[in-house]
Amino acid sequence: MAASAPSRNMAVPLTAFAAGAVVALLVGVFGKVHDPTLAGTTTLGFHTVIDMKVVLTVVIGILAVVQLVGALWIYGRLGVEPPSWLGTAHRVSGAVTVVLIVVVAYHCLWALGLESGTLADGEPVPTRTVVHGLLGCAVIGALVVKVTAVRSRRAPGWFLPVAGGLLFALLVAVVLTSAVWYLAAKG
Fold first, then answer.
1. Is 81 exposed, middle or buried (0-12, 13-18, 19+ CB in 10 A)?
2. What's the number of domains the chain is made of?
C-alpha cells in the first residue's frame, strides 16, 4: 500500500500538466484558425484595444510580482511573520490576475489571432510576434496547471511552487514580449 501512495500523488501533477498542454494547444489552434476581427472586443475606455491590452498586461505583470512576494511571505521565505490578512489578499489578487489574463487573452486571440508564416504583404511575421503568441498560449495552459495545484489536496508538496513558478516565468516572458516591448518601441 505504501508504494501506491507516491504514484497516486503523481497522478495529480501529471494530469494537470497534460490538461494544461492540451488547453494550450487548443488555444493555439483556435488562434491560428480563427479569422481575427475587432468585432466582439472592447477597449474598456482606452483609445484602442492595443492600449487596453498594454495597460492590463502591465497590471498583470505587477500582480504577478505581488503574487510571488505574497507566496514567499506566506510560506515563510522572507523571514518576516506574515500578517493574518495576507492569505485573503493573496487569493483576491490571484483571482484578479486570472480575470485580467482571461480578458487580455480573449482580446489577443479574438482581435489578432495566432500569427505565424507571412503577413498579407508577404513579409514574414516578426519572431517576437510568433514567440509572444506561443508564450501566450502556454500561459493559459500554465494557468490550468496552477489552478489545479491550488485546488488539489492530494498533490505532492512540490507541485504548487513548481506550478506557480512556471506560471510566473511565462507571465514575465509574455509581459516582456508584449507590453514592455510595445512601450519601448512605441512609447
1. exposed
2. 1
Beta-bridge partner residues of 118: 124
How far CA 66 is from CA of 34, 133, 166, in Å, comes to 34, 24, 15
The DSSP bridge partners found for residue 124 are 118
Domain coverage including residue 55:
4-186
CA distance 87 to 38: 38
11-31 pLDDT, tens per residue? 999 999 999 999 999 999 999
Rounded Cα distance between 7 and 12, Å, is 9
Euclidean distance between CA atoms 44 and 52, whole angstroms: 7
In a 3-state reduction of DSSP, which class is residue 1?
coil
The dihedral sign for the CA sequence 23, 25, 29, 32: positive
Q: How many helices (H) and strands (E) does the chain have?
A: 6, 0
- Dist. CA 47–CA 90, nearest whole Å: 31
Among 3, 2, 12, CA closest to 156: 12
pTM of the model: 0.90
CB 111, CB 41: distance < 8 Å: yes
